[in-house]
Amino acid sequence: MSDIAVRPQEWMEKISGLREHIGKVIVGQQDVVEQMLWCIFAGGHALLEGIPGLGKTMLVRTVSEALDLSFSRIQFTPDLMPSDITGTNILSFGQHGDTGMTFQKGPLFSSIVLADEINRATPKTQSALLEAMQEKTVTVGGVTHQLPKPFFVLATQNPLENEGTYPLPEAQLDRFLLKIEVSYPSADELKEIVKRTTSSHEFQVERQMTGDELLEIQRGAKEVLVAEEILDYAVRLLMMTHPEEAAAPEAVRKYVQFGSGPRGIQSIISVSKVRALCSGRMHVSTGDIRAVALSALRHRLFLNFEGQALGITTDHVIREVLQALEASA
Predict the structure, then answer these.
(1) CA of residue 210 relative to chain centroid, distance
(2) Structural contact between residues 151 and 111, judged by C-beta atoms closer than 8 angstroms
(3) Which has the least CB within 10 A, 13, 106, 187, 211?
(4) DSSP 103-166
């Protein structure tokens, strides 16, 4: 281990307090909140998919306020240009009439960036996010600018509408650590949503953690141990998503065109470490691997024509893989 002071119990309590505070604002969606926190403490970006009105924007804003991080929202539209999000050089005039170029920062220069309906922007604008998401930098006019630390892109997309949208390219999908499915609330949750949103009472989000504490927990999560047999388990899981593998289940061989790339296992291990830390453990278990597999891999498997025609989902395929892996263990 490095020289960082390892305090799993303290970190677990901080994360638990953050989760409970967010729950006072967001009705239900415990799994969504949990997965988003996994993603943030693993230092990655998240793609939230769900129909409009499920509170995705409110969730992201609440998380940013509870973490006391700068927040910006970008509403993606077909006419949005790359410079609208990255910033641009503008002509400025000095006191003595001299002129020069000054960089005007765009909304990407925030710690938490909500990319709302990201699939509505053109591929050119979507690609402007690639450097920011991977390198945590923005290059304009040949000059590279560092983004703030920590930095997260939390993007949303509506799975129902296809008209006027541009599907995210595989390279960009792979940059998202997790793809989180936001489900429809239950009847009791709907009643609670109505009570909270139509009354005069407004809950004030209070800071639960600073950016420095967040970065400390991120560093601490990297110290969580992964035993060799656990790593082998994760590798077998990833390899079984490839149709050419002998151990691949029938659903993979029949419906999958391409399995997950290496970023899939990197995501699984990174998020599993955070999940272990959330339980006060400094070691990863197979239960952690299985718990994060769906959200880490669902956007990294690509179905063939038969799978798409039959309406097979990647979640169905991954569950088949997990069952086959359990049976062979």
Answers:
(1) 20
(2) yes
(3) 187
(4) EEE-TTSSSEEEEETGGGS-HHHHHHHHHHHHHSEEEETTEEEEPPSS-EEEEEE-SS--TT--
Question: Tell me, what's the pLDDT at 2?
Answer: 55
Nearest alpha carbon to residue 112 among 52, 172, 153, 56: 153
- How confident is the model over 16-28, as pLDDT tens digits? 888 888 887 777 7
CATH: 1.10.3720.10, 1.10.10.10, 1.10.8.80, 3.20.20.70. Which one for 224-329? 1.10.8.80
* Angle at 199 (CA atoms; ends 198, 202), nearest 5 degrees: 110
Can you give the pTM of this predicted structure?
A: 0.87
The hierarchical CATH code for the domain 1-222 is: 3.40.50.300
Collapsing DSSP states into helix, strand and coil, what is residue 177?
strand
Beta bridge partners of 154: 46, 114
